Amino acid sequence: MVVGTNATGSEKLPLLILGTAKRPRWLRDKPDGVDYKGVGKGWMTAAVFSDWLQDLEARMAAEDRLILLLVDNAPSHKVPEKATPHVRVVKLPPNTTAAIQPMDQGVIATLKARVMDAQTEAIMQAYMHGEEDPHQIKLAQALQWCKQAWDDIPAETIKHCW
């Protein structure tokens, strides 16, 4: 999952979910504000990052905005040779992500905790209603939890992580 936001938390980018299926059946049921990309092992690749960055560049160009994008030094985060005049990409130094990457400083942990809360609640409800396998969850439902959790993270929480 790829998450991105500005430093104040007032503008969150749509979530990008990475999976292994090129065109999964549930894709038509995915919530608005969630993008999906099917890639081999479901990991970020240089090609996926480049496509995502070009989409972000097009969006910022259409809005005539200039932004700074901080990324960790993962091999997949290759800065393209083709200029992105509206998105300046800065890679953080090696082995510093956990210490200085704002998204690692609580935003992602908050997102994970909220998704886990939603999952736990759904399992409890299914159990209380006597469902045969309360742990069986549809992927579209999990994506909805991710979207809702992302939308519900307060701007103040994001701001604190900076």
UniProtKB/TrEMBL annotation:
* Domain DDE-1 positions: 2-162
* Alphabetical list of InterPro entries matching this protein: CenT-Element_Derived, DDE_SF_endonuclease_dom, RNaseH_sf
> What GO molecular functions are on record for this protein?
DNA binding
Q: Which Pfam families match?
A: DDE_1 (PF03184)
- Top-level taxon of the source organism: Eukaryota
Question: How is this protein annotated for GO cellular component?
Answer: nucleus
Protein name, entry field: DDE-1 domain-containing protein
